[in-house]
Amino acid sequence: MPGSGKGIVAGVAKSLGFQIIRMGDVIRDEAKKRNAKIGETAVQLREEHGEFVVAERCIQKIKDLSKDSSNHSDLFIIEGIRSPFEVEMFRENFPDFKVLSVNSSPETRFKRLQNRKRADDSIDKSEFENRDKRELKFGIGEVIATADYMVPNEGSIKRFKNIIRSILTNEM
Amino acid sequence: MPGSGKGIVAGVAKSLGFQIIRMGDVIRDEAKKRNAKIGETAVQLREEHGEFVVAERCIQKIKDLSKDSSNHSDLFIIEGIRSPFEVEMFRENFPDFKVLSVNSSPETRFKRLQNRKRADDSIDKSEFENRDKRELKFGIGEVIATADYMVPNEGSIKRFKNIIRSILTNEM
């Protein structure tokens, strides 16, 4: 969910040698091309190319990177999975695939987003709630409810990073 | 989700003086009356009386208990909330209402349920997956994704109980 701290996971993963594949980049690149808002583009892209378009592009990217001999890491983190369909596709293509969910309360996430400046982050309460609803419509609740790892991110950042590090090291 | 450890939360809450309202009891009592399976009864009851039947009966129960002068505790734990509609109803009726979600991975939950003997718990993998799907259909993923507290329950029971205790004490 927005503001729960998935970016921190990506940072820790990168430091451990993982390559970061951001589902959001597919959408961000497309939004730039269309000169449209990111949230709208996310919905539109799926309407035009089906539920699976973002996952398909990420899977292709990972396969291309795996074939590239100049590329020494075969550890990947996919950031920003939202729907159970996407989970199924990644699982079919990559047998070792696991879901890690990072969770913070709505109160905590709202406070964090208010303090952020990225263009696609919400500012007022109704924007925040609409953004949550949009994410939930993709089925993200089901992805969270059935994740292989669930890590709360409410208190100490240091402790949170340690937990993420130990999970990722275990999967390497 | 089934097998994640909500019963342990109820146990801790009880020891702190909370009264336990089990949504499942409404369904369990009804299943006994109908001589039907609990999972089926849960679906049927909602089909007959609407999405809100179980929550309605629990809200009435809490209001009756609050009026009862022989009853000294006004702290309640509602165990087994599944849908976002139910969350909304409890929130409307009780302004201090908070959602606490207890989370374990599917692998952990499956192992636990295999070791359990209660009649409504699943035994084989496909039963387990069907039960998960039934819960997810109620919208439990959305409830989990937007919970006020999310507590993972994977490792030490003692640590888990301590976290629950500190959350509940904070809300007393």
Write the H/E string of chain A, N to C: HEHHHEHEHHHEH
CATH architecture of chain A: 3-Layer(aba) Sandwich
Shape verdict of chain A: globular
Which structural class do you get from the secondary structure elements of chain A? mainly alpha
Helix proportion of residues of chain A, in percent?
A: 55-70%
Describe the 3D structure:
- The structure is a homodimer of 172-residue chains.
- Chain A is mostly helical and 172 residues long.
- Chain A has a single domain (6-171), classed as P-loop containing nucleotide triphosphate hydrolases (Rossmann fold), CATH 3.40.50.300.
- In chain A, the strands form two sheets. Chain A has a two-stranded parallel sheet with strand order 1-2. In chain A, strands 3-4 form a two-stranded parallel ribbon.
- Chain A is built from nine helices and four strands; from the N terminus they run αβαααβαβαααβα.
- Chains A and B meet through helix 7, helix 8 and strand 4 of A and helix 7, helix 8 and strand 4 of B.
How are the secondary structure elements laid out?
The structure is a homodimer of 172-residue chains.
Chain A: H1 6-15, E1 19-22, H2 23-34, H3 38-49, H4 53-67, E2 76-79, H5 84-93, E3 100-103, H6 106-114, H7 125-137, H8 140-145, E4 149-152, H9 157-171
